[in-house]
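Cross-check.
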Amino acid sequence: MINKNISNKSKFTEGLVLDEYSLTVNNILVQITITRYPHYPVPRYDVSITNISDTTKIILEKIRQDFIQKIDFSAIESFESNDLSRIQDRFRKEIKHLLRNYFPNLDEKSEAMLINYVIEENLGFGKVDVLLNDPHLEEVVINNHSEPVRVYHKRFGWLETNVKVVTEARIRHYSSMIGRNVGKEITALNPLMDAHLRNGDRVNATLEPISSKGNTITIRKFAKDPWTITKFIKSNTISKEGAAFLWLCLQEELSVLVAGGTGSGKTSMLNVLANFFPANQRIISIEDTRELVLPGDLHWVPMATRLPNPEGKGGISMLDLLVNSLRMRPDRIIVGEIRRKEEAQVLLEAMHTGHSVYATIHANNAEEVIIRLTNPPIDIPKEMISSLGLICVQNRNRRTGKRRTLQLAEVLPSGDSNVLMQLNVHEDKLEKHNESEILYQRLEMYTGLSTDEIKKDLESKNKVLQWMLDNNVDDIESIGDVMSQYYLGILDMTAPPPRRKSDG
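Predicted model, tokenized:
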């Protein structure tokens, strides 16, 4: 951590700088500073544009004010996306002319940067675009025009920014602009919008008076740098022993249900489990929103649901895709989330017919998973659940923001759960909890390995994971290469690990 005193005319006077880094967005260099101030509930996320001088910003503000007078945001909401493109092109020419009056010797690169700045501030997302381009952020939230934009940072949790949207009309304009790009609309008659953007981000928007304090936009960003097993171990989300045990279960094709509350890391754990898939099997994934990122060498077919159009036609549900996936000769099926009885029935039927299935469910512990599955609205007979191999429970401590694997539990023939490993909250460590009653017997039956041989296999997986940790094998493609070599029996841990060009 860096100690630094910061002078500010606002209530943010002296604080402890937690982190500083820079971003480049549309050729504009941006400095991000995260500071904790005394007597303030959350740290502050400050955006500062560094390659535009204060004098230039004053001139740009004059140009911007002139620009604002030419724009009717309420009228723009009704335009099509190609109309907006024409508007932007027209104003680029006007801004270019104004810039040359103030900066006659401006080079082309600087001119393009300043034009982009003015356009983004008025017809684009402005400084919100900086937040959307920060890879450290998971969520960007606009609550209304009078409050600062808030963000959820991977390291520091919820932060308050120094970014504000100037008017409610502008927030509404943002919502309409997002909707048009994906064929959705948000109006007074349709004041709620849930949209999946082409880059994978998920957007929810509401209009007042449904949201009584003002218009809102919530953007959950698609993880371009996905979680991997080594990142999970390094962040202490799971122990190396717990990871090796999961790897063993995945290799031997036991089905796994990942449980947890909202924001606990269920989908991240699904992505991590996929690190252990062999390349010679066909994987079908089914999601509402594309969030999974698997190694490129895998035989992977990603599929996503689709909402019906305004006339109620053309919708493709999770159940539709799940039933269809069974006709695609899958070896493994990944399902985003189980919500309804029909989905659970098809999923369990797939397990009974020899498919390995991986899915998520909202539940806080292994016992709750069984209760949820066996009671309405899912209401599955308890005996059917025994085809499930393992329950993995993820947890997020809302006080500290830490995400951890809370429990690893086997499912007994009776349909009850038996917790094998559980998080010791005081020690912040995943520890052995109970002896296995059925899982080792299953593994012996499927693999022909004795209990001692299974334990030796776990030891070898521990060594591979430690080797990956020692050599910083963190990215998904390099881990995929390690797994391919491991399954082929050619992994050489005396040599440097495989590296992809994308590692830099």
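The domain at 229-503 is CATH 3.40.50.300 (Rossmann fold). Residues 244 and 455 are 10 Å apart (CA to CA). Passed to J.P. for a second look.
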